[in-house]
């Protein structure tokens, strides 16, 4: 917990509000943001980490994935490397990103190389409403 707090304070010193956590083994796959599950809309597919490593199952995560599938979105629970995420940002394939957590409200963010709140987009606006 102290490491989490320490890194969050360091991120805040650099103008960021959250820490993007990677897997503990290879340290290259996105797992969470802050204490939330993170999801990305890349092209027309929602990508989120699989339930392994530090990623825990939760009712909010499960609800989001169920709603997204019901709305017709393709959902992939798979490893997403930082390199793939950055490339999606560079090419414009990365459309939206958001974090979900049972103890949090839906946390909406647009990702363009870093995670910062910019504006509500089509799918994330729909999830909130």
Write structural notes for this entry:
This protein has about 130 residues and is an alpha+beta fold. Helices cover about 30% and strands about 30% of the residues. The chain contains 4 helices and 8 strands. The chain has helices at about 1-15, 60-70, 80-90, 120-129; strands at about 20, 30-35, 35-40, 45-50, 75, 95-100, 105-110, 115. Strands 1, 2, 3, 4, 5, 6, 7 and 8 form an 8-stranded mixed sheet that branches. β6 (about 95-100) and β7 (about 105-110) form a beta hairpin. The radius of gyration is 14 Å and the shape is globular. The N and C termini lie far apart (about 35 Å). The model is unreliable at about 105-120 (pLDDT under 50).
Oligomer: single chain
Helical proportion, percent range: 25-40%
- H/E order of the elements? HEEEEHEHEEEH
Over all CA atoms, what is the radius of gyration?
14 Å
Count of beta strands: 8
**DSSP helical segment count:** 4
Please outline the helices and strands.
Elements lengths: L1 H12 L6 E3 L7 E4 L2 E7 L2 E4 L10 H12 L3 E4 L4 H10 L2 E7 L6 E6 L1 E3 L5 H7 L1
Spell out the key features of this protein:
single chain, about 130 residues, alpha+beta, 8-stranded mixed sheet, 4 helices, 8 strands
Short précis:
This protein has 129 residues and is of the alpha+beta class. It has helices at residues 2-13, 59-70, 82-91, 122-128, and strands spanning 20-22, 30-33, 36-42, 45-48, 74-77, 94-100, 107-112, 114-116. It is globular.
